[in-house]
Amino acid sequence: MSVDAELSTPSLSVGVIGYGARISYIRAPDRHGNWADVAKGFDDPAAWRADPTFQGATIGRYANRINRGTFELDGRRFHVPLNDGANALHGGPGGFSDRDWEVEPPVVTPHESSVTMRRTSPDGEMGFPGNLDVSVVFSVTGSELTIDYRAITDAPTPVNLTNHVYLNLAGRPSSIADHEVTLFADRVAEIGPGLISTGGLIDVAGTPLDFRTPAPIGERWRASHPQMVLAGGYDHAYLLDSSGGEYDGLRLGARVIEPSTGRCLELFTDQPTVQFYSGNMLTGTVVERSGSTLRQSDAFCLEPQQLSDSVNQPHFPSTVLRPGAEYRNRTIYRFSAE
């Protein structure tokens, strides 16, 4: 398969491509030392460019949804083209996932492999104000994949970056229903029609959204709870607390274990939420590299980010980056087997 950089250690191998600053594959061993690709994706470059599902992509300028694709900033109203019904999703139809990034030569040391990707999002791109200079650094150290995001701007603009890699820790086409998930959060952001944030927060206790203790993804994903019905499964921002502890200054946001292989993923982040998505909108229209169509229950996403539609929710933390400041965001994916 063709990648722009392969980042490898004896414990982990990650391929990345410049189109969309995307993760192409993640190869990790199971409890018996058998390696497999746990990330969904394609081998054909044309398939990446035709992909409507954001496979492995860097998402920006604004991850998740903006209500009706419009927001007001410093007294001016801005409009992002709609690509999700009446809303703008993941930066609009020409967001960062659909752009070619500059790929710098990989840097390899005895302990780490890394590659930096850059692009300038010009003033007015997808309706957003300001020229935004962005870099994404993918690094592999031991069994960890780290993604570091940086951005500066010459005019105030909202910024909310994440990665949309689809995962199945079994490393083969199979259901994710048995994956055991822990999410270190006692609240989620409430969604309404169109999956737009209402601005409210919901306690997960006593609901099918509660993953404070490990539970299989498929155990409650067809529950009749109104939030589950609206999303068709899980597609919710979990507000992280400190119950998972910290590592390298980042909070543990999620842990996922695949029982048959023993593969385990721990996600650490400095972002306030993790969007947990159970692939509800995978409808069989995309054929991955295994030759299988991707459907709901085939993969999940964990997307660290700011709260959805913060640009229209004054009581949510601001996502506005201003000149002279630097946007920073770090995620660590730690793989192991047990």
UniProtKB/TrEMBL annotation:
<feature type="binding site">
    <location>
        <begin position="64"/>
        <end position="65"/>
    </location>
    <ligand>
        <name>beta-D-galactose</name>
    </ligand>
</feature>
<dbReference type="Pfam" id="PF01263">
    <property type="entry name" value="Aldose_epim"/>
</dbReference>
<comment type="similarity">
    <text>Belongs to the aldose epimerase family.</text>
</comment>
<dbReference type="InterPro" id="IPR011013">
    <property type="entry name" value="Gal_mutarotase_sf_dom"/>
</dbReference>
<feature type="binding site">
    <location>
        <position position="235"/>
    </location>
    <ligand>
        <name>beta-D-galactose</name>
    </ligand>
</feature>
<keyword id="KW-0413">Isomerase</keyword>
<dbReference type="InterPro" id="IPR047215">
    <property type="entry name" value="Galactose_mutarotase-like"/>
</dbReference>
<keyword id="KW-0119">Carbohydrate metabolism</keyword>
<dbReference type="GO" id="GO:0006006">
    <property type="term" value="P:glucose metabolic process"/>
</dbReference>
<dbReference type="GO" id="GO:0004034">
    <property type="term" value="F:aldose 1-epimerase activity"/>
</dbReference>
<dbReference type="GO" id="GO:0033499">
    <property type="term" value="P:galactose catabolic process via UDP-galactose, Leloir pathway"/>
</dbReference>
<dbReference type="InterPro" id="IPR008183">
    <property type="entry name" value="Aldose_1/G6P_1-epimerase"/>
</dbReference>
<protein>
    <recommendedName>
        <fullName>Aldose 1-epimerase</fullName>
        <ecNumber>5.1.3.3</ecNumber>
    </recommendedName>
</protein>
<comment type="pathway">
    <text>Carbohydrate metabolism; hexose metabolism.</text>
</comment>
<dbReference type="GO" id="GO:0005737">
    <property type="term" value="C:cytoplasm"/>
</dbReference>
<feature type="active site" description="Proton donor">
    <location>
        <position position="164"/>
    </location>
</feature>
<dbReference type="InterPro" id="IPR015443">
    <property type="entry name" value="Aldose_1-epimerase"/>
</dbReference>
<dbReference type="InterPro" id="IPR014718">
    <property type="entry name" value="GH-type_carb-bd"/>
</dbReference>
<dbReference type="GO" id="GO:0030246">
    <property type="term" value="F:carbohydrate binding"/>
</dbReference>
<feature type="binding site">
    <location>
        <begin position="164"/>
        <end position="166"/>
    </location>
    <ligand>
        <name>beta-D-galactose</name>
    </ligand>
</feature>
<feature type="active site" description="Proton acceptor">
    <location>
        <position position="303"/>
    </location>
</feature>
